[in-house]
Please model this.
Amino acid sequence: MGLVGINEQAYRDAFRFGIDSIAADAGSLDPGPFYLGEGLPHVPRFQMKNDCRIMMEGLEITKTPIVMGSAGGSGGRPHIDWHLDIMREIAEEKGKKYKIAIIDTTLDKEYLKKRARQERIEGCQHNQILTEEMIEDATEIVAQVGVESIIKALDLNPDIVLAGRANDNACFAAEPVRQGFDKGLALHAGKILECGSASALPKPGSKIMRTPMIASLEENSFTIEPATDDWYCTVRSVSGHEFYERTHPQIQLEPGGTLDMSASFKTRVNDRSVRVEGSAWIDDTESYKVKLEGARRVGFRSLFMTTARDPNFIRQLDYVFDFTRERIRDKFAPMGLELDKDYHVIFRVYGKNAAMGPYEPLAAQVGHEVGLSMEIVAPTQEMAHEIAYFGKYGLVWCNYPGRTTISGNVAYVYSPSIVNIEPAYELSVHHILPVPADQSLFQIKITEVG
Model:
């Protein structure tokens, strides 16, 4: 929600299918930890308001509940408040009332500290155990709830469920599971739906940038198809989506268990839809686990962007970076500032391993020019700016081996050349927490807007 926007006509086209549930994933960790840390939304308010307005109009046509997951992008309390305020504004403009069930997924820090003292809370794809210091340093910690919490909210008969941080596919799978459909099939369908039209293809000449997707569930299968006739699905387009953002295309860990797609298979039904069968759900017999996310402010960031095309300079980049770091270190050490402790200097080379770093298979190939960034992270914005301003001259004036100029190693991109950007955050909490299976940890509140 709120990204490229919902195509209103394509959304209305979906109603011809006879809809039992409308759902949208409104968030992600993809934009990084800043938005969770600062309590800010991922998307512009006007775009989210337009998408909410379109979705809420569907209530009047289908009379079915809407589920919105990961409110405001990160699902924290400030994000829920922001998202709720938008829906309140829409309700007042329309002169209508809506009953909204809000799922609070922010966890109390004292509760988490107590748990951390009593047990080992394991990292998610890393080996750092959650500590009390990590918990305290995070501005807010949210848990990704599964279908169970959303089903509890749906049982309260709201018009809209507004969930904090939620597992992406749970938003779509909750109502089918509530109605008794197979959990493995429902979650697999939700996995495909949560990325919208990423599993479909536009027909030649289509002017619809994105389309809502429809999943029709049966006892042993589900069918995926676009809402609009301007798009279509193939076995390849649906299968390809299963590789998206996954370390394993057939196994996906979920709150409470595992979605196993290893035995699933797909069949082209017609020129626009694909049937999927064989997905399975495996309960976690030990405990019900959810993923935690928390962000810690690590300082303020200033950035120097530049370019270079001298082949000798490009060959000597490691020398230039070492020279610049040493120059910065020696300048600020008498002020009591220690490099890599009190502040950090990060170089990136665009055109040489910037995207994949040490995993780049073509590391030896370098083009005729490169883009360079020097990033400074320091405790204050003023300090970050001063270090960046001084440090840029290391790149400009470094007398590297093979140099044939007396100055001007690089070309400035901006004036002023130093850009101060938002506070810097790191994803400091990314852990797996066993929680009560009854979902009592996540409070549900009913409110009315309009």
User: Anything to note?
Assistant: The longest helix spans residues 45-62. The chain has two domains: 8-105+144-285, 296-427. The chain has a mean pLDDT of 94.
